[in-house]
Design brief:
The protein is an alpha+beta fold. It has helices spanning about 1-10, 35-60, 145-150, 160-170, 175-190, 190-205, 210-225, 325-330, 340-345, 350-365, 370-380, 390, 410-425, and strands spanning about 15-20, 25, 65-70, 100-105, 125-135, 135-145, 230-235, 235-240, 245-250, 250-255, 260-265, 275-280, 310-315, 315-325, 335, 385, 410, 430-435, 440-445, 455-460, 460-465, 485-490.
Length: about 500
Amino acid sequence: MKRFFIFILLSILFGILSAQEDEWLIDTTWIEQEDFEQFKQQSETKFDSFRDSINIRFAKALAGEWTMFKVDKPRQLPQKPKPKTPPINKGDNLNPQQLPKGEVVPLPNKVKKEPQKLPPPSIQNNMTKTKIMFYNADILVDIPQKDMVKSCVLASTKEKDVSLFWQQMTKTNVQACINKLLLQQEKLQLNDWAMYEMALKLSKQLFSDANRQVATTVFLMNQMEYDVRIARTEKGLACLLAMDCKVYSIPYVTIGGKQYYIFLPNSEQRNLSGNIYSYTCTMDNAILPLNMVVNKTPLLPLQNRSMHKYSRSVDKYSVEVEVNESIIKFYKDYPQVDMHIYANAMITEELKNSIDTYFRPIIEGKNVYQAVSTLLHYMQYGFDYATDDEQFGYEKPFFPEENFYYPKNDCEDRGILFSYLVRYLLQLDVVLIDYPNHIATAVCFPSDSNVTGDYYEYDNKKYIVCDPTYIGASIGMSQPECRNEKVKIITLQPIDR
């Protein structure tokens, strides 16, 4: 795509062409209208020709013999031997001390992919509209007419047939689909994983068979510059996704020193093993791994026009929180990723409003120690406890939102939610403390607050232990069996009000 702008600049001898937001702005103060229309038509034609040449060149490369790669077994998210019931403080009041720390887990990678500037819209001949359902959002997408789609034949999963299919897709004016997907990415605040899901849903609207769905999904993702590949497996074609963090419970292969996670359109990839075949060539500019960070929560409509309600009273404090169930479904389908992805995720405006309405008043007028104590007390008593194995049968860390939806939570879920509340409501720095068998938090209090207790030193700051799962424990109290264990410090980003 970027080469296109260079091409245009070199080939056009008049006017100034620049891309701003979703529109193409052209200085035409001295150009007659008919000249402008001719110029516009030429620009569109040149872009289409340039894009097609990239795809045709790549299609020819696909026809070469693919390489065999060994499938690596899925990593398993580390399962901590958690207690069946939360530990209770029995009056332990040990002398405060600095505790040993080990590895520091940095903040997740920031999204490096800039919003893609849309090319001039191609002439919309032979196009129609289709509706895809994306977590209760009805999205209209321009697609080639059915007779054009039917002409895209994938006779087998062999290299030459995949190459031919790619060439056929190039001729269908699929750029209109991509324009719409990019507009929806901005409108709905979708991250890279959501874009893959949307591309797959669109592919399923276009084709009924799994192999063409895979090939089309990869075609769409490559046009948007994502590093996604096609693989041939014993079950048919599969998508290979490069991601910028570890993913668990999904088999993967290593190509050129980079790990690609294997996804089949019907989610049958977990038991995949043996060998697969794929190519080592890369389409121009399709080099971006999927960034799994949730910097912005997707703007999804309500399921059945209603919110899920959480309501609980602790002492004199009553809290009611509304949760968008469409977001819960999105998170349920999310791949298992590293803990810092969950802990640094943002929340919906609906949940933020509920927090402002119910949590902010219960800390109003309190000093910082009292405010953190109040939030810690609520977290210890405001949720029922269950291990992930008891509740789900597998390890499932929660995004903050999910604590108010599922009936119970465990230590990492409470730590993630408590850390969000303290960062958002009190604007304090917080880290997660990842013990071998437990997760808690530690808060950096202002130096003039004179808060004492067990603490960790990190980045020349003192972080006081706060454990939302240690029932009845005050600020600064660690579980006795955890005090001498070497921990990971999971860093968390600040949250603006």
